[in-house]
Amino acid sequence: MPGHPVSRLALAAGVIVLSVGCGKKEEPAVVPPPPAAVVAFRVTSVDLGKGITADKMVANSTDDFSPRDTVYVSVATEGSSPGAAVKAKWTFEDGQVVDETTQTVAPTGPARTEFHISKPSGWPVGKYKVEITVDGALAGSKEFEVKRA
Amino acid sequence: MAADRKPPDFSDVQSGSSSTAPRAPGSPARTYTVVAGDSLSKIAKRVYGDSQKWRVIYEANRNLIKNPDLIHPGQVFTLPEV
Q1: Strand A58-61's sheet: what is its strand order?
Q2: What is the nearest CA distance from B36 to chain A, expressed in angstroms?
Q3: Does A101 map to a domain?
Q4: pLDDT of A36 higher than 70
Q5: How far from A140 is each of A70, A134, B12, B27, CA to CA, in Å?
Q6: Which domain holds residue A55?
Q7: Burial class of A48 by CB neighbour count within 10 A (0 to 12, 13 to 18, 19+)
Q8: What is the ipTM for the molecules in this complex?
Q9: Do residue B21 and residue A107 have CB atoms under 8 angstroms apart?
Q10: Contact criterion met (CB < 8 Å) for B24 and A82
Q11: Which residue of A37, A98, A114, B76 has the smallest Cβ count within 10 Å?
């Protein structure tokens, strides 16, 4: 249509502008990765048994023992610490202390710490308790019983 | 009578510990809290399986032990590796 040369020109220019606009690639938004979560050191489980595996998990999980058994407690933890004092305090019936041992560890992730006690002359029958503390704060406990074989 | 019953003797108890986590730098491998009836030789027997190793504990805790024949419940001794 010879009567509308300007309109054609404008249309052509618009197409060019549109083409150039569409040709511009959108830069993907750069989202910084979240900072690594710092997991506070804490006890996740306390397990008793008559044996221990190489990775410090209890074998033969039980809370009934015989006088000649070695008693193992496995303390599972998560989180990291430059130095956490994990203590096992073993007591008999009315609170008589049988043993207290502390292991100071510096974990960087999930870990297991085991404690064990034995008595060559045989455990007196009765009820016992092991309390686990971390830096002095109670983190878990288990009760068990020694019965006549 | 139950009231006359003597408390059981746990002086021959043997104990130990280990961990999958590394030991904290500068910390002892483990510590032991003295309980009633303990002596250094009993502790050595308990933790090392050899009462003759009492001197290892004594030497590592000279700042706490004035007299090796006199230790007190509640004292916390470091236990070196042997």
Answers
A1: A58-61, A42-52, A71-78, A111-118, B14-19
A2: 8
A3: yes
A4: no
A5: 20, 9, 26, 23
A6: 42-146
A7: buried
A8: 0.74
A9: yes
A10: yes
A11: A37
